[in-house]
Every structure is written in structure tokens, then in C-alpha cells.
Write a structure and sequence with these properties.
172 residues, alpha+beta, 5 helices
């Protein structure tokens, strides 16, 4: 399996099983509007990361993202990542489309150039209330995971897919 295929498989696993009943305040968006929301969110993520504002990233993330990790561990890992990779200089989008498991999510993948290295970046956004909120973030340089860090035994931290809401759509 090529590195790109492995990364793609991980991205799918990050969002497989996602879903749930749509929120009442969500308005159906066409593909172009959904892509635009994801790209605006990606630009904002990059700018916020470069301001070393890990708390702001956490605060704007989806409820699921915050439920999977307490604030302080996120802050520590975000600062560690920022110290390792430096400024996020550019991002070349490879794809921005609805995630395979649910239209409630947009998956953005591409190549990010940081001051100290380049990484494949996979981002899942949860679309709610007319905006895209960070649901997961993965950085891979072809050999190692820069983020999220691994736990002892090689398990990834915090990024299991959210559970479906009772009565929500089922996968088939």
C-alpha cells in the first residue's frame, strides 16, 4: 500500500461511522458552498496556528473534537507541534469533498509546507450552523505521524470516529 493510500485509508477511518441526525439550524448547502466553508476554515486554521493560538483552535473545534481530548493535553500537543514544524507557510489542496461516510462532514487533504518540513494534511470538518468546525487533524510526512502523537503501543490519541446518534442514519 502506498503512503498516499495509507493516508487516505486513515482519513476514511477518521470519519467512517460519523453522522447522526441533522441539526435543525443546518441549511442544506450545495457542494460549492460546502467546499467554500471548508476552505475558509482551513485558511483560518492556518492563520490561527501561526499566531500560536492553540486555545482558539480548541475553542472553535467541534463538540466531538473537544469531547475526545481535554483542553490542557490539546494545548500541550499543539504547542509541541508548533515548536516542531514552525509556521504553516502554505497549503496546496489536493481534494475538498464530502467525507465518504456522511454529508455532515467535509474532508480536505493536501500538502502543507511548514517552516521546518512538509506534511500531507488531512482535515475533517463538521458542517453545522453554516460553518465548518474542526473535527480531526492528521499530519503525515510519509514516514512518521507529526500529529496526532501516538500513545504507548502505537495507538493514535483522541481520533476515534464519533458514534452515530441513536436513530441517526445507518451505514449500509
Amino acid at each position: 500500500m502506498s503512503n498516499l493510500s495509507a493516508v487516505g485509508a486513515v482519513a476514511f477511518l477518521l470519519v467512517s461511522g460519523c453522522g447522526g441526525a441533522p441539526r435543525q439550524n443546518d441549511v442544506p448547502l450545495d457542494d460549492e458552498a460546502r467546499r467554500a466553508l471548508a476552505m475558509v476554515a482551513t485558511d483560518a486554521l492556518r492563520e490561527t496556528f501561526n499566531k500560536d493560538a492553540c486555545g482558539a483552535i480548541y475553542g472553535e473545534a467541534s463538540d466531538f473534537f473537544r469531547s475526545q481530548q481535554p483542553r490542557e493535553p490539546w494545548m500541550n500537543e499543539c504547542r509541541r507541534l508548533r515548536g516542531t514544524v514552525g509556521d504553516w507557510e502554505s497549503f496546496k489542496v489536493r481534494s475538498a469533498a464530502a467525507c465518504p461516510a456522511s454529508d455532515e462532514f467535509m474532508c480536505v487533504s493536501g500538502w502543507a509546507t511548514f517552516a521546518n518540513a512538509g506534511y500531507r494534511v488531512l482535515i475533517a470538518y463538521r458542517l453545522e450552523a453554516g460553518r465548518a468546525r474542526l473535527d480531526s487533524l492528521v499530519l503525515w510526512n510519509g514516514e512518521t505521524w507529526a500529529f496526532p502523537p501516538l500513545l504507548p503501543g502505537g495507538r493514535k490519541r483522541y481520533y476515534d470516529p464519533p458514534q452515530r446518534a441513536p436513530g441517526g442514519p445507518s451505514s449500509s
